[in-house]
Amino acid sequence: MAKWDTDTVATQLVADGRVNTAFQHELETTRRRVDALLSELLVHRNPLVREVAATILGERRNPKSIPALITALADKSEHVRWDALVAIEKCAGLSPGELSFVLLLTPKRPRITKSRVEAWWQIVGSELLA
């Protein structure tokens, strides 16, 4: 079993610009150490690590990850922002593109996207976390 500290997660997940898909799948199918993934999503310097962390959190479909994913909607990488939005939809139990369609979101306008998703979360968050 792999160690679960954040350095190990990042180095095992992405090396030489390539994603370790076996490790990604392992992280998608476990409930362990969500804190390491949330940390990678929000602070890792490599955008590919942040992007894959968002994807993994989406596959876990845990609404408790949504606040961090909303923060990631302001990421400087458009790929991270897009994967965070898709992950939010999955964590909320929505179909892909459903939230984007209803809130008229586009990854090209991150401030508006983040603002609208935050407002949506204020309305539905307590229900999804119950």
Describe the structure concisely for a colleague.
With 130 residues, the chain is mostly helical. It has eight helices and two strands; from the N terminus they run αββααααααα. Strand 1 and strand 2 form a beta hairpin.
What does it look like?
The chain has 130 residues and is mostly helical. The chain has a single domain, classed as Leucine-rich Repeat Variant. Helix content is 67%, strand content 3%. The protein is built from eight helices and two strands, in the order αββααααααα. It has helices spanning 6-13, 21-28, 34-43, 47-60, 66-72, 78-91, 98-103, 110-129; strands at residues 14-15, 18-19. The chain has a two-stranded antiparallel ribbon. A hairpin with a 2-residue loop joins strand 1 (14-15) and strand 2.
What's the helix and strand layout?
Layout: H1 6-13, E1 14-15, E2 18-19, H2 21-28, H3 34-43, H4 47-60, H5 66-72, H6 78-91, H7 98-103, H8 110-129
Antiparallel strand pairs: 1-2
Helix pairs in contact: 2-4, 3-4, 4-6, 5-6, 5-8
Strand proportion, as a percent range, falls in under 5%
What is the count of distinct domains? 1
Helix and strand composition category:
mainly alpha
At the third CATH level, what is the topology name? Leucine-rich Repeat Variant
Given the structure, what is the number of helices?
8
The mean pLDDT is 90
CATH superfamily: Leucine-rich Repeat Variant
Helix proportion range: 55-70%
Order of helices and strands: HEEHHHHHHH
Tell me the name of the CATH class: Mainly Alpha
Strand arrangement across the biggest beta sheet? 1-2
- Tell me about the largest β-sheet: 2 strands, antiparallel
Outline, from the CA principal axes?
globular
The CATH architecture is Alpha Horseshoe
How many beta-strand elements?
2
Low-pLDDT stretches are: none
N-end to C-end Cα span: 32 Å
Rg: 14 Å
